[in-house]
Each structure stands twice: as structure tokens, then as C-alpha cells.
Amino acid sequence: KMPASIPEADRRHRASAAFSLSFLSLVFSVTAFSSSYWCEGTRKVAKPFCKGDTKGDLCIRFNSPDGNGSQGVQYIWETGDDKFVEKKFHAGIWYSCEEMINEEGEKCRSFISLTPASDRGVLWLSIVAELLYVILLLIGNILMSVEICYYSSVIDGLKINAFSAVVTVLAGLLGMVAHMMYTTVFQMTVNLGPEDWRPHTWDYGWSYG
């Protein structure tokens, strides 16, 4: 009886470890899907004019303290790249947010509304593929939990394990396709999107992987 119980215990330990890893993958996938940190970067914008006693490097200064209220000719000290400031932004499937100049917080817009109309179909396909990816991961988790609690037959447990492995592999392929489609849409939005959104530099964020 002892030799027969050891493989069964080992099998349950392996199943528990696989379930734990798959569950973590599901949690991270759901978090990433709802996140707006798929891509991060900066956007170059012109500085606003300084108002009142506003000081600092985030606004354009005049050559007199009361420059905004004077009707005379005013001279701006900033020249070239000094007239611009880089605002940080981050974007995901659902939202794109960028920091405010001289204010706290962020301004967020729907990424779908920023996407060129010709590419929105690809974006929706990416969203559907990402949803299927999460659903398949959930199914894989359910199957692994059934395997842990299934005691009657080792063969049946192996069948469930094999099926959950196939589902998990399919989920990974769908997730990869969804990410590739989103990358294509994002690059097209960078090139053809609204002028007041196009980033100056960007890279992939923590939730893209």
C-alpha cells in the first residue's frame, strides 16, 4: 500500500503546483487586461503661458512680471526646444492617460476613440482574442482544480491534466495573437491618430507581457 500512495501524493503535489501557477497567470492576465499600462512614453507639447505669479520651467515666461497684462510688445525667453515640455503618458486597450501640466492628476481618454476608424476592427478583434484568452485560462484553472479533487482513477486524472494543458496552450496562443494585433493598432494610431495625442517616444509597459 505504501508504494501506491506515494505516486498518488506526488501527482497531487504536481497538480497543486500547476494549479497555483495557472491561477497566478489568470490573475496577472485579468489585471493586465484592465490596465492602461500596455504602452508608456512621453508626448512633446508646447508650454502654456505663465499666468500671474506662476513660476517654474513648465510655462513660457515673458520679459516682465506683468507681461500677460501689458499691451506692449513682449519677448519670450524660451527658444527652440525650451518652448516644449514632455508629458508622460500610458495607454492600454481601454484608456490612454497623460499627466497634466502644472496640475495634479491625469487626463484620460478612451483609446478606442483615438484609434483610426480603419483600424478599429482590428482593435475589437484584439479585445475578443484577449477575452477568449482569459476565458480559456479560467477553464484551465477549473480543470486543474477538478484534477486535484479527483481521486477515483489515475487515468481519468491524467486525461483531465492533458485536456487542461491543451486549453492552456491555446490560451497562450490567443494571448500572443491579441498582443500582436494591439501592437499593430497602436503603431497605426501613433502615425495616424489625433495630433493632440501622438507620442514623441514610447515603449512597452509592465502589463504588456
From TrEMBL:
Subcellular location: Cell membrane; Synapse
Keyword Transmembrane: yes
Any one GO CC term of the record: asymmetric synapse
Residue stretches spanning the membrane: 122-150, 162-182
Bilayer disposition of the protein: Multi-pass membrane protein
GO biological process, one term: regulation of transport
Top-level taxonomic group: Eukaryota
Classification via Pfam families: GSG-1
Keyword Transmembrane helix: yes
Keywords noted in UniProt: Cell membrane, Membrane, Synapse, Transmembrane, Transmembrane helix
Family: Belongs to the GSG1 family.
Protein name: Germ cell-specific gene 1-like protein
Protein source organism: Oxylabes madagascariensis (white-throated Oxylabes)
Gene that produces this protein: Gsg1l
